[in-house]
């Protein structure tokens, strides 16, 4: 059963995707819209499915160029072809996420150490200087990096 054509405001309401985002997707070639006789953007079932695909891909943090490539495959090829394109993209994003996790873990450890050293620093009535306990360890770490 074919859904009747939806105007941009209706598609936005039905999907929760702001109209500004729908217009942006159109300008980027991700979500083409037909035009009614009076010039309004109109969308059919396939556009709604395409938007669901874009939304799912965005939830995986895929870039717009990656999504655009996947959409071309999705529109013209088999599910196996989409899977073949999507798998490496997801693997790349997993590797990037692992790098980010490692960097954030190291940052958390540095912050935790700095907070502990800061707590050990005496409350001197004089201005701070490079010999402060929390700075010495941080400067040592920077010097060895």
Could you walk me through the main structural features you see in this protein, from its secondary elements to its overall organization?
It is a single chain. This protein is elongated. The protein starts with 5 loop residues before the first strand and ends with a helix. The protein is built from 6 helices and 3 strands. The model has no long low-confidence stretch (mean pLDDT 87). It is mainly alpha-helical. A hairpin with a 5-residue loop joins strand 2 and strand 3 (41-43). The chain has helices at 8-15, 19-27, 45-59, 64-76, 79-120, 133-144; strands spanning 6-7, 34-35, 41-43. The chain has 2 domains: 1-63, Orthogonal Bundle (Multidrug-efflux Transporter Regulator, Chain: A, Domain 2), CATH 1.10.1660; 77-145. 68% of the residues lie in helices and 5% in strands. A 3-stranded antiparallel β-sheet has the order 1-3-2.
Question: How is the biggest beta sheet arranged?
Answer: 3 strands, antiparallel
> Structural class, judged by helices and strands?
mainly alpha
- Counted by DSSP, the helix tally is 6
Radius of gyration: 26 Å
Please tell me what the overall shape is.
Answer: elongated
Mean pLDDT: 87
Relative strand content: under 5%
Distance between the termini: 63 Å
Instruction: Write down the domain tally.
Output: 2
- H/E order of the elements? EHHEEHHHH
Helix proportion of residues, in percent?
A: 55-70%
Uncertain stretches: none
Total number of beta strands: 3
Largest sheet: spatial strand order = 1-3-2
